[in-house]
Design a protein that fits this description.
10 helices, Transferase(Phosphotransferase), domain 1, Prot_kinase_dom, PRK1-6/SRF4-like, protein kinase activity, 3% strand, globular, 216 residues, ATP binding, two-stranded antiparallel ribbon, mainly alpha, Protein kinase domain-containing protein
Length: 216
C-alpha cells in the first residue's frame, strides 16, 4: 500500500504530472518499519545528463521524470525488467515513452507477483516493428493482450475459469475467511491495473484508495 501511495503522490501532487517509468521490485524498498517506499525516481536520466557513462552501476534502472526530462529509449540492460512494462510500451520498437497508465500497469504486475508468489519473468516477446500496424486495427485489443506477461494471462484465465483461490494465491495469504476476501479484492484491483487498454486502467490515486479500504 505504501508503494501505491508513493506512485499516486508522484502522479497527482505535481503540476508536471510525473511518471516513474520503471516500477519493479528492485525499485520498491522497505524502511525499518517495513513500509514500502518508491525508489529510483528519475535518477538514471539525471546521471545521464550529468555525463556519467556507467549509469546502471549506480542506479540500476531507467526511471524518468515525467515531462521534466526527455525520454530515452530503454537499453538492453533496462529490457531485463520488460516483464513489468505495459503492452503499449513494447510498440514502435520500445521507443514509446512511459505514461502514468503504464506505471499503473507495472504496479499491477508487481501486485500480482506479490499475491501469487510467482515471477512474471516469462513475458511474451516484444512487438516487432512489422506488427505495429495491427495494434492500431480492429484486432488491436487482442494484440495488446498477447503482450502481457504470462503471469497476467494466467491469473486472468484463472478467474475466468473460476479456479479455486488456493490455486492462484500464495498460501501465506489464505489463513482465514476474512483474509481470503481481502486477497480476492486485491486480485481484482491488480487485474484492473493490468487491463490491455490504457484507458480502462484506474488512476494510481484510485488504486491506492482501493487498497487502503481493503487493508482497513
Amino acid at each position: 500500500m505504501g508503494a501505491a501511495r508513493g506512485l499516486a503522490h508522484l502522479h497527482e501532487c505535481s503540476p508536471r504530472r510525473f511518471v516513474h517509468g520503471e516500477v519493479k521490485p528492485s525499485n520498491i524498498l522497505l524502511d525499518v518499519d517495513y513500509n514500502a517506499l518508491v525508489a529510483d525516481f528519475g535518477l538514471t536520466r539525471l546521471l545521464t545528463i550529468a555525463g556519467c557513462t556507467d549509469v546502471y552501476s549506480v542506479a540500476g534502472s531507467g526511471g524518468i521524470m515525467g515531462g521534466a526530462l526527455p525520454y530515452a529509449r530503454p537499453t538492453a540492460l533496462m529490457d531485463k525488467s520488460s516483464a513489468y512494462r505495459a503492452p503499449e510500451a513494447h510498440a514502435l520498437g520500445g521507443s514509446q515513452p512511459p505514461s502514468q497508465k503504464s506505471d499503473v500497469y507495472s504496479f499491477g504486475v508487481l501486485l500480482l507477483e506479490l499475491l501469487t508468489g510467482k515471477s512474471p519473468e516469462h513475458a511474451s516477446p516484444s512487438v516487432s516493428s512489422s506488427s505495429v500496424p495491427s495494434l492500431l486495427g480492429h484486432n488491436g485489443q487482442r494484440e495488446l493482450e498477447q503482450q502481457a506477461p504470462e503471469l497476467v494471462r494466467w491469473v486472468r484465465q484463472g478467474f475466468e475459469d473460476v479456479r479455486p483461490l488456493s490455486e492462484l494465491a500464495d498460501a501465506t495469504f489464505l489463513r482465514d475467511a476474512t483474509a481470503r476476501k481481502e486477497v480476492v479484492a486485491a486480485f481484482h484491483v491488480a487485474l484492473g491495473c493490468v487491463e490491455a487498454d490504457p484507458e480502462r486502467r484506474p488512476r494510481m490515486k484510485a488504486v491506492s484508495e482501493s487498497l487502503d479500504k481493503i487493508g482497513a
